[in-house]
Task: inverse folding
């Protein structure tokens, strides 16, 4: 739990840093909002490849071992983003970063899901998912401090440079985190039978339906999330005309809501079941994002509404790790989760770009509302067609 919570926290910090530097990059390099959205999208698109690749490698070489590799990769690439000097350079650096952070979720989720007993799996996996909110909060704190103490031209670079810190977590994982027993038993049986397994098996007739529907669920959850939160600091700073300090304060309310949402949803996952929790949070995410970005509300009301915005839009993720772990068989669990979740991330990644381009014709708030609300409808559809899996025990070589 320490390793995966820390991995998600530092993953969240490195990924969300970009949302804070968008206004600075637009001003420094004279790029459009659409191009800024494309930079965000590039990392998310390539993360789809990274997640599938890391999941496949985790099925073959081990969860803990590949988790170390993914963390080291995204930390180094985030650090390199601070040295970029034009649109093309940061597009490439962020794209390479995506390989690492896409893989980190896939491998960490499987590692936790296979380690925890069925009756506590939803709580445990959802709790470590809450590490993302901690990382996002650290990014917001670093943004507030650095942009108040350093010239803007240096501050945005320094925000990327601190992204090297997650690399230190690798030493802890290497020393303290063993492989799950269900993985080692499955690997022994596969080796004994001479069957290495294939990542393409996620498209076999017996698994294809689960693969398609979990990917659809992930598209909705992540499309909504990234449509909102990639552009939220820019929305607050430009459309709502908030200062750096006020933007940071508003974001801390959203981040606090996110953390509480992760925790509450994690417990509801085991209490209500995976599907009911996903339905509840998807519907309420739909309502709150429209209220926050589209309705003509005053800034003090928006400050308060930031808590439920973060609560529901982040809480939708807590059931996903346990749900996907239980839906895919052990022999290809890493490949299945890695593909579906990160396919969703890759397609959902188009939302920031489309929001950016649409905001050239509509207000930024209206553009966010359109794409985020549509994404949550897709999520509800995917969830409705999957079976409930609460209480399922994981078997070796199933």
Result:
């Amino acid at each position: 739990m320490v390793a995966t919570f820390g991995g998600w926290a530092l993953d969240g910090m490195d990924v969300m840093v970009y949302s804070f530097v968008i206004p600075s990059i637009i001003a420094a390099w004279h790029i459009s909002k659409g191009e800024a959205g494309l930079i965000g999208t590039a990392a998310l698109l390539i993360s789809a490849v990274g997640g599938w690749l890391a999941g496949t490698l985790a099925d073959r070489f081990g969860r803990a071992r590949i988790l170390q590799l993914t963390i080291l990769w995204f930390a180094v690439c985030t650090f390199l983003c601070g040295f970029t000097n034009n649109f093309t350079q940061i597009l490439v650096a962020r794209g390479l970063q995506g390989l690492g952070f896409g893989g980190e979720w896939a491998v960490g989720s499987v590692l936790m899901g296979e380690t925890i007993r069925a009756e506590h799996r939803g709580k445990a996996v959802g709790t470590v998912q809450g590490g993302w909110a901690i990382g996002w909060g650290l990014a917001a704190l670093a943004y507030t401090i650095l942009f108040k103490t350093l010239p803007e031209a240096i501050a945005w670079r320094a925000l990327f440079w601190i992204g090297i810190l997650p690399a230190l977590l690798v030493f802890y994982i290497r020393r303290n985190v063993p492989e799950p027993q269900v993985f080692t038993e499955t690997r022994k049986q596969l080796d004994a039978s001479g069957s290495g397994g294939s990542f393409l098996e996620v498209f076999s007739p017996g698994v294809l339906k689960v693969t398609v529907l979990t990917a659809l669920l992930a598209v909705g959850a992540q499309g909504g999330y990234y449509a909102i939160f990639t552009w939220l600091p820019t929305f607050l700073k430009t459309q709502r005309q908030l200062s750096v300090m006020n933007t940071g304060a508003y974001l801390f309310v959203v981040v606090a809501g996110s953390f509480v949402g992760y925790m509450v949803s994690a417990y509801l996952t085991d209490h209500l079941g995976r599907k009911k929790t996903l339905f509840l949070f998807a519907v309420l995410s739909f309502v709150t994002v429209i209220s926050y970005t589209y309705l003509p509300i005053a800034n003090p009301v928006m400050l308060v509404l930031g808590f439920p915005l973060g609560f529901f839009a982040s809480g939708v993720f807590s059931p996903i790790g346990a749900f996907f772990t239980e839906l895919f068989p052990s022999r290809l669990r890493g490949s299945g989760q890695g593909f579906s979740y990160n396919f969703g991330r890759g397609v959902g990644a188009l939302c920031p770009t489309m929001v950016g381009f649409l905001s050239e014709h509509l207000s930024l708030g209206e553009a966010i509302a359109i794409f985020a609300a549509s994404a949550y409808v897709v999520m509800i559809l995917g969830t409705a067609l999957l079976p409930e899996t609460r209480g399922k025990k994981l078997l070796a070589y199933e």
User: Anything to note?
Assistant: The domain at 2-384 is CATH 1.20.1250.20 (Growth Hormone; Chain: A;). The chain has a mean pLDDT of 85.
